[in-house]
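Z., the sequence and structure:
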Amino acid sequence: MILLEIVEAAILLFEFVGVGIIIYAGVRGVIGCLRRDRMTRLKLAKGLAMGLEFKLGSEILRTVVVSQLSEIVIVGAIVLLRAALTLLIHWEIKNEESEVEMRHAENEEKPSV
């Protein structure tokens, strides 16, 4: 029973941390968009990825406390969905970082007058 209570508390903690990170990244994204910061998309994607990692961790912990096969299927589907979202966001981060590096290299190549 103690393990069950610890896992439930950890799930709740991970969920809160994940949601908090996603909200923080969203607010920073809006502010960056209003300021026309070119790095906004990259910062937002990194924040979303971090938040989803915590949410994914909570779902993995949730598999410890499920008792019925139908619950395992539901949790498994949620884990797969969140893992797919995380992969897509990491792909977006990789592409955005490549674009930033290309812009930085182009700016360095331009001769100063």
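The mean pLDDT is 88. The chain has three helices and no strands.

Let me know what you think.
H.
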